[in-house]
Design brief:
The complex is a heterodimer of chains A (585) and B (100). Chain A is an alpha/beta fold. Chain A is built from 24 helices and 17 strands. Chain A has three domains: 2-26 and 149-251, 3-Layer(bba) Sandwich (Glucose Oxidase, domain 1), CATH 3.50.30.10; 35-144, Orthogonal Bundle (Enzyme I, Chain A, domain 2); 259-573, Phosphoenolpyruvate-binding domains (TIM Barrel, Alpha-Beta Barrel). Chain B has a single domain (5-95), classed as Histidine-containing Protein, Chain: A. Chain B has a four-stranded antiparallel sheet. In chain B, helix 1 packs antiparallel against helix 3 (74-95). The longest helix of chain B has 22 residues, at 74-95. Classes of the chains: A alpha/beta (585), B alpha+beta (100).
């Protein structure tokens, strides 16, 4: 058993067999084999040995001709490792005695050596682990063939373990086959994390190097609550997690019963629960979870993973699908919120050394007007199909907001001139996610119809912490009093001005903050679709006075630890494990 | 004379320790003898004909090893392997390593 810690990005517990995908997307398969398959498997192993030996000899000869014998020597050593009597005997023993597949036996054997080498203190000797991994990769390629495993074409349930999953790869995951996933890199606010949450797949990211420690077919637990991955769990651990999985399944069933009940506090205050989505098909999921609308439709997926820039029609189709699915419910479409590097490949020497403070989001849109206009036209066209609103991200100055609205008006006039129908009264909102916007919110609200607090960026910019940097991400705390004071002020100013305010960052999906935010005066939450029932249940258990009390208590505190502990204890007092008895509906 | 045993103490001279190329040379030479070859570092025993086993010894520069050969050509084996170990530094420096 081996326990690894990472960042929890999507809750839930997954238990299953590992599907390991290395840096090159190469699958390391599982398989125990049947007794009658042993001979065939031994033969496959011998064939793989021969073909890899041929490959290495070829490499050695060509390197030797081109660069000289010294450089070819390492391949002679590889060849000798491959033909090592110990190695062959060990692999064959796994196949014969344990009924391992040739792939698995090769993996287990070679990784055993590589792990042992890695532990050597002498750097020169520990480097030899790379040679062993190289051999493993060659043997597996020969055994499996060169075909890249398409994650999208999975047909049996697995726990996916990979170095990294791109947002578009994550988006193609089928929840029925991908029980959960863990990746070596990635952070809490990354798109992969957001998509995992949308698909309700338990996930842990930012685990660090661990793929060398796991073989395809190993049993793995993903604990998406604690951010933990357990390789080859022992029986007591497995049983503990099976129980927990059972408990969370019954919680899901219990929460499903809340779908058609309104989000109303015990004293009758209605709380609007909206969904954050990334992909069009999530609109349906949102309705199933009881969302009153889409509070944040991220549009970045149109750009990510696409080999050609999306056309106005691509945008329009994606928006139309969501707007149609949501019927007359509101759909807030956020305009492009990406860094410049995501739009076109940037050579490393031109890469922005400080992308979070650079040309991104609304700044990038205003610097690329044709691109921005194309998206605005598509949104305007979709606006006649239902209840569409538009929202600009990362506004830091009033000028930016005014300029963005101006471009929007120009796009609208253009469409009207072309005789294309669009909603002339489209509601315009802004994200409040920079401290500048939060501090000056009283000036900004004169220019918008609604606002939405983006706490992921607000926390990062207020506390000057990159949430993706493991060296400092313990400082990334939404419950930091500085952040809370900004949020409280923004909500109060909006409330007094009669401008609807919502909160769409991860904070709104986190049950521990619900009472506090209600106490601040927030009446609209936009959360991951899967979190709607949980947040609704809290709303139905509390009354306003209680929430205001929580807010007063918290705002009197200074230390993050005290605030977290207090919020957790208040949440526990609600006894959410019990059935929903409150009258509310 | 079938069960001849010959032992010889050797020191790893190679500054990087007994890494891939010296281990390769050792195993290759050892493989040419009929005798079984064992290399012993303190408690650890390695099959002298297995490069992986030799690498597992993690023998750094200055480590003392025992080479034990058992079989008809045991004596020749320890002689040759002992010589190889003594030449290891210069061998690598001067000739690199022949392809095979």
């Amino acid at each position: 058993m081996q326990q690894l810690d990472g960042i929890a990005v999507s809750p839930g517990v997954a238990i299953g067999e590992a599907l390991v995908i290395d840096n090159e997307g190469f699958r390391i398969p599982r398989h125990y084999i049947l007794r009658e398959e042993i001979d065939g498997e031994l033969q496959r192993f011998q064939q793989a040995l021969q073909s890899v030996a041929g490959e290495i000899q070829q490499t050695r000869d060509s390197v030797s001709t081109q660069l000289g014998d010294q450089y070819a020597a390492i391949f002679a050593a590889h060849l000798q490792m491959l033909e090592d009597p110990r190695l062959q005997a060990e692999v064959e023993r796994w196949i014969r005695d344990q009924q391992y597949s040739a792939e698995y036996a090769v993996s287990v054997t070679l990784r055993g050596y590589a792990r042992a080498f890695q532990k050597f203190e002498n750097a020169y000797l520990s480097e030899r682990s790379h040679d062993v991994y190289d051999l493993e990769r060659r043997l597996l390629q020969s055994l499996v063939g060169h075909e890249r495993q398409q994650i999208a074409s999975l047909d049996s349930p697995v726990v996916l373990l990979a170095h990294n999953l791109s947002p578009s790869e994550t988006a193609t995951l089928k929840p029925e086959f991908v029980l959960g996933f863990g990746t070596e890199v990635g952070g809490a606010g990354g798109h992969t994390a957001i998509v995992a949450k949308g698909l309700e797949i338990p996930a842990v990211v930012g685990i660090g190097h661990f793929l060398f420690d796991v073989s395809g077919g190993d049993q793995v637990i993903i604990d998406g609550h604690e951010g933990r991955v357990i390789l080859r769990p022992d029986d007591p651990t497995l049983q503990r997690y099976r129980k927990r999985q059972q408990a969370s399944r019954s919680a899901v069933v219990r929460l499903k019963g809340l779908r058609d009940k309104p989000a109303v506090t015990r004293d009758g205050i209605h709380v609007q629960l909206m969904a954050n989505i990334e992909f069009p098909h999530e609109a349906q999921v949102s309705i199933e979870r009881g969302a009153e609308g889409i509070g944040l439709y991220r549009t970045e997926f149109l750009y990510l993973g696409a080999s050609v820039a999306p056309t106005e029609e691509d945008h329009y189709q994606a928006y139309a699908e969501v707007v149609a699915a949501m019927d007359s419910r509101p759909v807030v479409i956020r305009t492009l919120d990406l860094g410049a590097d995501k739009l076109s490949p940037t050579p490393p020497e031109l890469a922005d050394p400080n992308p979070f403070l650079g040309l991104r989001s609304i700044r990038l849109a205003l610097a690329n007007l044709p691109l921005f206009r194309l998206q605005l036209r598509a949104i305007l066209r979709a606006s006649v199909l239902g209840n569409v609103r538009i929202m600009f991200p990362l506004i830091t100055t009033l000028d930016e907001l005014v300029r963005a609205k101006q471009v929007l008006n120009e796009a609208r006039d253009e469409l009207i001139n072309e005789g294309v129908p669009c909603n002339r009264e489209l509601l315009v909102g802004m994200m409040v996610e920079s401290p500048a916007a939060a501090l000056l919110i009283d000036r900004f609200i004169d220019e918008v119809d609604f606002i939405s607090l983006g706490t992921n960026d607000l926390v990062q910019y207020t506390l000057a912490v990159d949430r993706g940097n493991p060296a400092v991400n313990d400082l990334y705390q939404a419950s930091n009093p500085a952040v809370l004071r900004l949020i409280q002020r923004v909500v109060q100013v909006a409330l007094e001005a009669g401008i609807p305010a919502s909160l769409c960052g991860q904070m709104s999906s986190s049950p521990q903050y619900t009472m506090l935010l209600l106490g601040f005066g927030l009446r609209q939450f936009s959360v991951a679709p899967g979190s709607i029932p949980e947040i609704k249940q809290i709303c139905r258990r509390v009354d306003l006075e209680q929430c205001q009390q929580v807010a007063t208590e918290v705002m009197g505190m200074t230390r993050v630890q005290d605030i977290n502990a207090y919020l957790m204890s208040e949440l526990t007092k609600l006894n959410l494990g019990e059935n929903d008895h409150s009258g509310g509906g | 004379m079938r069960n001849n045993v010959s032992t010889r103490k050797v020191t790893v001279l190679n500054p990087q320790g007994l890494h891939a190329r010296p281990a390769y040379q050792f195993a290759k030479l050892a493989g040419k003898f009929q005798a079984g070859i064992e290399v012993i570092k303190e408690e650890q025993h390695a099959n002298g004909k297995s490069i992986l086993d030799l690498l597992m010894l993690a023998a750094e520069a200055g480590t003392e090893l025992w080479v034990v050969a058992r079989g008809e050509d045991a004596h020749e084996a320890t002689e040759a392997l002992g010589q190889l170990m003594e030449q290891m530094v210069s061998l690598e420096e001067i000739r690199g390593l022949e392809p095979d």
